[in-house]
Amino acid sequence: MAPGAVRRIGRWAVGTTPAGEDLAVSRRCRHQLADMSTGTVDADGCLVCPWHQSRYDVQDERMVTGPRGFLTYHGATPCYARLVLAYGRYLRLAAARVVRRDGRVRVESR
Ligand code: FES
After folding, report:
1. Is the pLDDT of residue 93 over 80?
2. Considering its fold, how many domains does the chain have in total?
3. Looking at the domain assignment, is residue 30 inside a domain?
4. What CATH number corresponds to the domain at position 22?
5. How far apart are the C-alpha atoms of 27 and 84, rounded to whole Å?
6. Is 21 among the domain residues?
7. Does some domain include residue 33?
C-alpha cells in the first residue's frame, strides 16, 4: 500500500505512514463517526479524517488536531475544535496489529 493511502479491512482502517510503518485503527472518527478508512495519512504520519480533517496520532491513537467544521459546514471553528479535541484526547481510536504474510495483509486485534 502506498504511503498516505488508507483502506478498509473489516472493521479497521489500515494504512502506511510516510516512514513505511503499517497502522490499523478503528474506523469511526470520534467527532461525527466518519469512516476513517476513506481518510489519508499526512506527511507527519497522522491519520486525517475525510470529513472535517481531525488528525490522529497513530502511535497512541489520540486526536491531536480538532475538526475544521461540523455536519456539512467546512471551515474554521476554533472554540468548537478545542472542545472536540478535549474529549478526542481521551476517546482514543482502537488499535490493532497489521500482519503481512505470503503477500497478504491481515489485521489482528491486540
Ligand atoms: S467526522 Fe471526523 S472530523 Fe468530523
Report:
1. yes
2. 1
3. yes
4. 2.102.10.10
5. 18
6. yes
7. yes
For CA atoms 18, 22, 23, 27, the dihedral sign is positive
- Predicted confidence at residue 68, as pLDDT, reads 97
The residue segments making up the domain with residue 38 are: 6-109
Residue 49 CB–ligand 1 contact under 6 Å:
yes
Q: Taking the CA of residue 11 as centre, how many other CA atoms within 13 Å lie in the half-sphere pointing to its CB?
A: 9
Q: Is 43 helix (H, G, I), strand (E, B) or coil?
A: coil
Does the Cβ of 65 fall within 6 Å of ligand 1? no
Mean pLDDT of 10-36: 96
Residue 29 CB less than 6 A away from ligand 1: yes
In the block, which residue shows the cell 484526547?
Answer: 89
- Give the end-to-end CA distance of the chain in Å, rounded to a whole number: 22
